Amino acid sequence: MEWGSWSAFWAMGGKAPFVWGSYFVTGALIAFEVLQLLLWSRRVAARVAAAAQWNAVDEASEPAKEPE
Amino acid sequence: MSRIDAWRAATETKMRSPKSWWRFAAPKEFFWLTGKLVPGFGWAAALLAVVGLYAAFFVAPSDFRQGEVYRVIYIHVPAAWMSMIIYLAMAFWGIVGLTLNTRVSFILAHALAPTGALWCFVALWTGALWGKPTWGTYWAWDARMTSQLLLMFLYLGYIALVHSIEDPRRADRAGAILAIVGSLNVPIIYFSVQWWNTLHQGASVSLTKAPSMATVMLVTMLIMTFAAWSYSIAVALARARTMVLLREAHTDWAQKAAAAMIAKREAE
Amino acid sequence: MIALFLAVLRREALLAWRSRADTLVALTFFVIVATLFPFGVGTDERLLRTVAPGILWVTALLAVLLTLPRLFEHDWRDGTLEQLLLSAEPAPVWLGAKLLAHWVTTAVPLAALAPLLALLYDVEPVVYGWLPVTLLLGTPMLTLIGAVGAALTLGLRASGLLLALLVLPLFVPVLIFGVDAVASARAGAPFAAQLALLAGGSLAATALAPWGCAAALRLAVE
Question: Is the CB of C172 less than 8 angstroms away from the CB of B160?
């Protein structure tokens, strides 16, 4: 496919809003999903690692359960 | 009933055996396996998408009737396919989870849902943008578009149900039952909508008489479909992996794995 | 097995009679919403006759939806549900009785009331006869699918809204064939196929839905 020029490519035969509207929204959604997943998995890892420290503290500081 | 119990017992044994594929149904093994698989599928998706997009814009010719706007097909059709396949995959993992009692199966079903909903939305969105210049309307009550919209509602229902149940065991199983009921209904919905659509032909547009596609267009569409497929697997497995970590937060291995993840990121 | 079925049926009938105000609310909802439409779309007689089957079907469907949240709610709160699930008989036995009683006390009155409401739309004589028949053939599916949804959402926050979200997309085929049967009858076209599909769907739902419903109820009481 020969477009001739970049402006012809971006114009998409006069149907630019429909073609690029489809592709960019899809791209944005995918970028959002990946980013959200990345940030969420980091948060979870941090929380689970912190839970490990709490357990270690618990084991060190509490030899026996406190009576209620 | 006893046959299922025997089957479950056999699965439990297989899950513990180090040589069986079943061992990946154990959360720890699943976490390790997905750690290897996610980057692989992720890179495959990126590579296929680059090749597919290049082919979609620089190799595939213009359509002789629709001009350039037909290029939406390269995301529209893969998105529609993925949205349907992912819903069936959710039902499949729901059935596996309910019969074999494997928690990881339920987690996979949950992890697939947002990605399936994303593809479903993409299919609707691109369908509307494609419809306007070709049919003169963003929305027609065409059988496929209407079924797609109902599938979107099924995804939203599944996500809403799973999120509003706090007990993970109930959320897993209720989600599985809903996905199974929904997937039984998908063909019925499609059949009924098709029936209804042929009666109200006035405004609708026939999509079925599409001209046969050129080979280069078909190949491009297949590349884009494989890209969408790899992406969905990568994202769903990554999400499932994080869910496993969260659910196993009380275990020693999960805490060590989380610490290792953080250490690795800090080293980079 | 039959004794349990009959016992549950008798109990449900008695409960429905004691709480007949609930049934009346659903029926009143049906009447009021059906009378709202002419205010919305105007009183052109030809238009009203055309849309009457669709409006009455959608309104009846919403009235059925309205009755679903209380299907298991009461039994769940007072522990009856747990007792029933613990009984040695298979759950579909007593569930069948419960759902039959619910259908008879909610959907059948709606179907009986439909011709009266059709009067407001000045429909053709053939509609008076076939509208209730399609409702009777189709509403079992609504009750059965709805019961699975009610069981899945039992005891959750905003369960009524969630239930609507879960089951309304699944109601679409029932609506399509129900309305189409009446519309075909109006137009003088054959409509036996639509009636057969409604009846077949209701039979299939009778065979399948109680199992899903029982599984979902077990989760709710655990």
Answer: no
Nearest in space to C215 (alpha carbons), one of B158, B183, B189, B172: B172
Give the count of Cβ contacts less than 8 A between chain A and B. Answer: 105
Q: Do chains C and A touch (3 or more CB pairs under 8 A)?
A: no
Burial class (CB in 10 A: 0-12, 13-18, 19+), B200: exposed
How many residue pairs from chains B and C have C-beta atoms closer than 8 A?
74
C216 → closest Cβ in B160, B177, B196 = B177
Interface test with B, best of C168, C175, C176 (most B CBs within 10 A): C176
Top-ranked range on mean pLDDT: pick from B12-16, C1-5, C192-196: C192-196
CB atoms within 10 A of CB A6: 8
The pLDDT of C10-18, averaged and rounded, is 88
- Which residues of chain B neighbour A15 with C-beta distances below 8 Å? 67-69, 133
pLDDT digits (tens, 9 = 90+) for C94-141: 999 999 999 999 999 999 999 999 999 989 999 999 999 999 999 999
Query: In whole angstroms, how far apart are CA B157 and each of A43, B116, B137, B164?
Result: 27, 13, 28, 11
Give the pair of three-digit tokens for residue A60.
């060190």
Its ipTM equals 0.91
> Which one of B70, B129, B233 would you mutate to disrupt binding with A, by most A Cβ within 10 Å of its Cβ?
B129
Q: What is the DSSP string of C54-122?
A: HHHHHHHHHHHHHHTTHHHHHHHHTTHHHHHHHSSS-HHHHHHHHHHHHHHHHHHHHHHHHHHHHHHTT
> pLDDT (tens digit, 9 = 90+) per residue, B8-55?
777 777 777 777 777 788 888 899 899 899 999 999 999 999 999 999
Of B160, B189, B196, which has the smallest distance from its Cβ to C162's Cβ? B160
Which burial class, exposed, middle or buried, applies to C110 when counting CB atoms under 10 A from its CB (0-12, 13-18, 19+)? Answer: buried
DSSP C161-202: HHHHHHHHHHHHHHHHHHHHHHHHHHHT---HHHHHHHHHHH
